[in-house]
Each structure stands twice: as C-alpha cells, then as structure tokens.
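Task card 7
Instruction: Convert sequence to structure tokens.
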Amino acid sequence: MPLLLATGPLYALADESDAWHRRVRDFLEARDDLLLVPVTVLPEVTYLLRSRLGEPVERRFIASLADHELAIEALHPSDLERCRSLLEDYRDLGFVDASVVAMAERLRLAAIVTTDRRHFAQVRPVHRPAFELLP
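Output:
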C-alpha cells in the first residue's frame, strides 16, 4: 500500500535538528512502500527547505524527485471539489492539507504520513472513521 506524505515529514527528513527527523527517518527506512507526494505539497516543502536550510538542500530534494525516489501524485478535478468542502467544514485546515486529505480519500488510503497531528486528526474522511497518522 502506498504511503501519502504531507509536508512535515519531507522537511523533517532534510533537517537533522527537527524534532521529527529521527522518527520519520527510522519509520521510512523500515518500510518499502511506494512514497507518494501530493503535487500540492511540493511548493511548500521547497519553500521551507530553501528558506530554512538553503538552496543546496532544496536542489537535493528536487534531485530525489527527478530520480524517482518519491512518486508525485497529481491533483484531480474531484480533489479540488473535495478541498472546497473540506475548507468549509474545517476552517483551520489550509489548502495543502485539504488536498492531502482529498487525495487520501480518492486513493482510499487508511493512513497519512504527517507531523501535523492537530489538523489531520480533526478530519473525518468519507471512506473511514479517521486516518491513521504515521509515524
């Protein structure tokens, strides 16, 4: 089963001083699942990497995408419709997180890999009672 990654784990992997770094790294190293990155997450991750860790770190991340270490999941028109309703129902949820939820629902995934427990824990997906938040 593929793992859908939100912004936080991707940033934590790159930043050794991040509180989630070791936990995310160890979790992903122990798995051999396909790692899916929503296309909507990419600008957020690259902005954080460049602004906090520098341009070389951002380039390494882009190289990992080009080398197919991570699979990019496209945003579908139905995802945008679902984002609209999620943003209405969950006023604290931003577009990027809403798009992760919409993709997880479309793909019928049980889990989201995230460091953001506050936002993702409040969402009630359409296909199950709640998401499992990993790691």
